[in-house]
């Protein structure tokens, strides 16, 4: 790429509520700038993980550099795509810090939603110029005037000359590009200052080592420079710098202040770079790092174990590599009687947990078992001490517990008023405290609740969507702890507690939940050669019981000359199946059993 | 020792549960098939040796081809292989596909055993599985068989649609009254691709659940035992020790050669089979494919699997002779783990009869 005029540089991102068309607009912008022809485009270019395409969501922020010519000038546009789900707010905040502007997409049929607002506030916190656009104007349900009014009233942004677009149909894309060029300020570029580059993401490449995605705040970096980070005392020699093209890296000779690009420096250990850290030069380097990101705290915890116990170290390697570009994942070694050695992992939410789980399985080809998700509790003991417990099997015996506190969130739910009853009913089931309700306009209310996090992590979001035909949206933030009547629910198989199945639940919900889990287990545990009692218990008190009857029948079919190999193969398959089972005492349970209890609708 | 299996892949109509290779075609095609079959029988005779202990003409429905064709096959076999003077020579057939005159001819030609597929003595059940014969036709066929082939075997099924504990008991009683020397009683298996499986999946037909079928099986075993039928294998019962020597050959992993489409062979350590395309067979003759070369371990596992289906179980001396290993020492661990399910003494290891219905759970420990 030729020399870049500083004033022709634009760094921006796209923010939106999930499903409002963020990735589709990104695709159109890339296509329009001629970075790729339509023919070569897979839909949703920036969602490069298979997982992202399949689920139709963006998980990771992904940068791409485009060129756009207008009025004889060539502009360089760095677009950083961002995730939209509430679980990934952390990723969004990282993207924002690398930009000067943000395109805010609002769906012409849905209007402003909780996530839209949450992301706008994040963008404002980062002093970004916000460019609203209204998407999906081609849909029959589009109500442009109403949505304009919402943007003006609820968010407070001016909607004069707002681009009206359909990313899907490619309508209005030029207007968006023009707005970016006219309204997003060029970055301030002090090339002469000492190098300060913010690492906003990174990943591990087998040939290049750690590849850091950076925003160069000040100074210049080029191949051959000696660099270091503020958090590590090691020095590295830069082997490659460059820009991002969709799905590939585009080497360049140097990166200058104001630019977004990558730096590789044969960094072999994933411990030597941290997202949020600042890179500077070894000689004449900056004295102060850039303001990084605030450390995010996991909200949901679960155990991850390899199905094949001998692959523990592979699992460790996988988690470390994922952690490299997903700092929000935390993990520490743990062990379970039932599942052997594994890790207790912390996630931003349930979706984040599912994503990590699937990435481990796909990208590292590891079969894993995940235990029921839970949150972190403050346990106050009768002897005056207290401890934090995020693993149910570490909960002290009932007699030693004075009381337990559980984390709570402040939740805002946006919905058309028609679903008020359904939402309030759901919140009540989830032990929520109602605070107030605000009419944003005649067709949209904001409900304010305090909800135990424990209740949100299972299926709250799905239940909310299904009870409101998808119209309600949710945003929440942590708000400390509150005292609560919580108990540990154990599951016993043939009289033995299976530690990996224990969960912490509210006392009033324990009976129902124990019954459901026992029923589910009965359905997934195959009949074995003896009868297996399944019991749900609180302490020594059994609250639910089911029985897996002893196996009665193999099919005793004919066994002629042609059947022998087939029969042998069936037995071999049966044997392989047994290997994958977990042994709890004398009982064999399939890995799915652990997953099943995650999927319980209360 | 050697056994011969000849596959006749023709039926007047396919039964709803059947996944065997069979076709409903005209007489010319049947005859063309037999011609190629004779060629295969002849051409293989030079390659394989051994005194033939048993010959089995199975199907399909062997009695669906003409009597002269059947006789040609038998003569061809006799002319090309060294058949023991006391060899068991069986032909399979379904009720109404044979009459007394035909049976007399078959017997004259050298067949000494007949296996008749009855499956049930209730018309509603027979209709449900697409059998072409009625209860009365089955009874009639058995009465003729009893006279001409006193050593005849009768097949029944457990767990077919509409069957109840009572109707099955009645089928067993009728079967016993027709004095066969041998009864095979198989549980219905829903094979992939069959009409019955499709109907069950669509919910059009119901079959009994696992526990009911197990109860039915237990009832059958008890009832046949009381009537003098000795259970010598999980699904096979014989009077006066008139067991199926041909099947026992399979279960002892003795050499067997298959002729005709989709037939399987085991010779030494090679297991091979013929292609199942009828047109191709008639056009080009047999095409043989290797299924697997069995290692010593494969053979041991198969032998254990097959012998544990028999109530005699594994004869320790035979195992020692075949594989040169002490069975009790070699399988010390699974024997100990499964001891509750096994009868173990100095000469035999067998699954206790009452645990036959969970046999694979025991076998898998030896794999």
Question: What is shown here, in short?
Answer:
By secondary structure, chain A is an alpha+beta fold.
Describe this structure in words.
- The complex is a heterodimer of chains A (602) and B (367).
- By secondary structure, chain A is α+β, with helices and mostly antiparallel strands.
- Chain A has 13 helices and 32 strands.
- Chain A has five domains: 178 residues, Rossmann fold (3-Layer(aba) Sandwich), CATH 3.40.50.300; 86 residues, Beta Barrel (Elongation Factor Tu (Ef-tu), domain 3); 71 residues, Alpha-Beta Plaits; 107 residues, Alpha-Beta Plaits (2-Layer Sandwich), CATH 3.30.70.240; 110 residues, Alpha-Beta Plaits.
- An eight-stranded antiparallel beta sheet of chain A has the order 10-9-15-6-7-14-11-12, with helices on one face. In chain A, strands 20, 21, 22, 23, 24 and 25 form a six-stranded antiparallel beta sheet that branches.
- About 2% of the residues of chain A have low confidence.
- Chain B has two domains: 248 residues, pyruvate-formate lyase- activating enzyme, CATH 3.80.30; 55 residues, no CATH class.
- Chain B is 41% helix and 22% strand.
- The longest helix of chain B is centred in the first third of the chain and has 19 residues.
- The chains are: A alpha+beta (602), B alpha/beta (367).
- The interface between A and B is medium-sized, with 26 and 42 residues.
Write the layout of secondary structure elements.
The complex is a heterodimer of chains A (602) and B (367).
Chain A: E1 9-16, H1 22-32, H2 50-55, E2 62-70, E3 73-81, H3 89-96, E4 101-107, H4 114-125, E5 129-135, H5 144-155, H6 173-183, E6 196-205, E7 209-218, E8 220-222, E9 226-229, E10 235-237, E11 240-245, E12 248-252, E13 254-256, E14 260-264, E15 278-281, E16 300-306, H7 312-325, E17 330-336, E18 340-347, H8 350-363, E19 368-370, E20 377-381, E21 386-389, E22 401-415, H9 420-429, E23 433-441, E24 444-452, H10 453-467, E25 473-484, E26 486-493, E27 496-497, E28 503-506, H11 507-524, E29 532-538, E30 541-548, H12 564-579, E31 582-584, E32 587-589, H13 592-596
Chain B: E1 2-8, H1 27-45, E2 52-59, H2 67-80, E3 83-93, H3 100-109, E4 113-119, H4 123-128, H5 135-148, E5 152-158, H6 165-177, E6 182-187, H7 195-201, H8 210-226, E7 230-233, E8 236-238, H9 245-251, E9 255-259, E10 264-267, E11 270-274, H10 278-284, E12 288-293, H11 296-307, E13 314-315, H12 316-323, H13 327-330, H14 332-337, E14 342-344, E15 348-351, H15 359-363
């Amino acid at each position: 790429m030729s020399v870049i005029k500083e004033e022709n540089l634009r760094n921006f991102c796209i923010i939106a509520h999930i499903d409002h068309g963020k990735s589709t607009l990104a695709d159109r912008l890339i296509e329009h700038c001629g970075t790729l022809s339509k023919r070569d485009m897979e839909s949703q270019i920036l969602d490069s993980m298979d997982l992202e395409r399949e689920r139709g969501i963006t998980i990771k922020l992904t940068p791409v550099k485009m060129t756009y010519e207008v009025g004889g000038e060539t502009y360089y546009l760095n677009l950083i795509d961002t995730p939209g789900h509430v679980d990934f707010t952390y990723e969004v905040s990282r993207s924002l810090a690398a930009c000067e502007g943000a395109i805010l997409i609002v769906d012409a049929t849905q209007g402003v939603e909780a996530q839209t607002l949450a992301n706008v506030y994040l963008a404002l916190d980062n002093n970004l110029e916000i460019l609203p656009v209204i998407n999906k104007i081609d849909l029959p349900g589009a109500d442009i005037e109403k949505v304009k009014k919402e943007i003006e009233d609820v968010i407070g942004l001016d909607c004069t000359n707002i681009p009206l677009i359909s990313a899907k149909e490619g309508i209005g894309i030029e207007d968006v590009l023009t707005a970016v060029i006219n309204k997003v300020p060029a970055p301030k570029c002090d090339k002469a200052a000492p190098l300060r580059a913010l690492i906003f993401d990174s990943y591990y490449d087998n040939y290049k080592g750690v590849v850091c995605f950076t925003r160069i705040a000040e100074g210049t970096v080029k191949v051959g420079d000696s660099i270091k980070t503020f958090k590590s005392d090691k020095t590295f020699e830069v082997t490659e710098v460059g820009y991002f093209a969709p799905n590939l890296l585009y080497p360049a000779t140097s990166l200058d202040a104001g630019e977004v690009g990558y730096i590789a420096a044969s960094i072999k250990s994933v411990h030597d770079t941290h997202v949020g850290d600042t890179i500077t030069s070894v000689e004449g380097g900056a004295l102060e790092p850039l303001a990084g990101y605030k450390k995010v705290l996991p909200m949901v915890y679960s155990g991850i174990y390899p199905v094949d116990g001998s692959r523990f170290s592979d699992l460790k390697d996988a988690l470390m590599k994922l952690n490299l570009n997903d700092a929000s994942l935390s993990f520490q070694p743990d062990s379970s009687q039932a599942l052997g050695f594994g890790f207790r992992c912390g996630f931003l939410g349930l979706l984040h947990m599912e994503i990590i789980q699937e990435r481990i399985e796909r990208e590292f080809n590891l079969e894993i078992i995940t235990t029921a998700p839970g949150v972190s509790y403050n346990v106050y003991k009768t002897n005056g001490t207290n401890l934090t417990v995020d693993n149910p099997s570490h909960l002290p015996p009932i007699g030693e517990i004075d009381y337990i506190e559980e984390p709570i969130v402040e939740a805002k739910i946006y919905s058309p008023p028609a679903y008020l009853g359904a939402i309030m009913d759901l919140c009540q089931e989830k032990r929520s405290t109602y605070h107030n309700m605000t009419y944003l306009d005649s067709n949209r209310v904001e409900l304010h609740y305090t909800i135990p996090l424990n209740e949100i992590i299972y299926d709250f979001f799905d239940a909310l969507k299904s009870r409101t035909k998808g119209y309600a949206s949710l945003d929440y933030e942590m708000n400390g702890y509150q005292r609560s009547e919580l108990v540990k629910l154990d599951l016993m198989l043939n009289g033995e507690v299976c530690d990996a199945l224990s969960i912490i639940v509210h006392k009033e919900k324990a009976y129902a939940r124990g019954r459901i889990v026992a029923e589910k287990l009965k359905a997934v545990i195959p009949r074995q050669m003896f009868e297996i009692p399944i019991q749900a218990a609180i302490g020594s008190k059994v609250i639910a019981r089911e029985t897996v009857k002893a196996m009665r029948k193999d099919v005793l079919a004919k066994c002629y000359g042609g059947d022998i190999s087939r029969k042998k193969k069936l037995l071999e398959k049966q044997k392989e199946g047994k290997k994958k089972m977990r042994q709890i005492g004398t009982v064999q349970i399939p890995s799915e059993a652990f997953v099943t209890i995650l999927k319980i609708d209360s | 020792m050697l056994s011969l299996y000849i596959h006749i892949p023709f039926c007047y109509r396919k039964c709803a549960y059947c996944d065997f290779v069979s076709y409903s075609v005209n007489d010319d095609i049947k005859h063309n098939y037999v011609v190629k079959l004779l060629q295969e029988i002849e051409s293989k005779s030079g390659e394989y040796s051994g005194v033939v202990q048993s010959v089995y003409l199975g199907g399909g429905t062997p009695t669906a081809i003409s009597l002269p064709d059947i006789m040609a096959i038998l003569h061809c076999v006799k002319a090309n292989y060294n058949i023991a003077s006391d060899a068991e020579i069986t032909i399979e057939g379904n009720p109404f596909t044979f009459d007394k005159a035909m049976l007399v001819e078959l017997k004259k030609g050298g067949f000494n055993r007949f296996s008749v597929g009855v499956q049930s003595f209730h018309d509603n059940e027979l209709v449900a599985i697409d059998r072409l014969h009625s209860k009365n036709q089955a009874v009639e066929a058995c009465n003729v068989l009893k006279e001409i082939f006193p050593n005849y075997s009768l097949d029944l099924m457990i767990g077919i649609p509409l069957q109840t504990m009572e109707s099955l008991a009645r089928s067993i009683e009728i079967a016993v009254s027709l004095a066969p020397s041998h009864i095979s009683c198989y549980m219905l298996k829903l094979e992939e691709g069959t009409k019955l499986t499709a109907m069950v999946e669509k919910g059009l037909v119901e079959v009994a659940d696992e526990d009911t079928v197990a109860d039915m099986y237990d009832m059958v075993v008890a009832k046949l035992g009381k009537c003098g039928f000795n259970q010598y294998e999980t699904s096979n019962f014989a009077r006066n020790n008139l067991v199926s020597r041909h099947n026992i050959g399979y279960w002892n992993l003795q050499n067997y050669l298959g002729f005709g489409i989709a037939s399987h062979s085991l010779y030494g350590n090679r297991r091979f089979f013929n292609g199942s395309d009828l047109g191709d067979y008639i056009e080009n003759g047999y095409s043989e494919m290797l299924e697997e070369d069995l290692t010593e371990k494969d053979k041991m596992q198969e032998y254990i699997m097959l012998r544990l289906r028999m109530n005699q179980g594994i004869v320790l001396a035979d195992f020692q002779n075949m594989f040169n290993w002490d069975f009790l020492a070699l399988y010390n661990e699974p024997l100990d783990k499964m001891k509750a399910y096994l009868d173990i003494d100095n000469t035999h290891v067998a699954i206790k009869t009452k645990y036959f219905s969970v046999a694979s759970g025991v076998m898998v420990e030896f794999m």
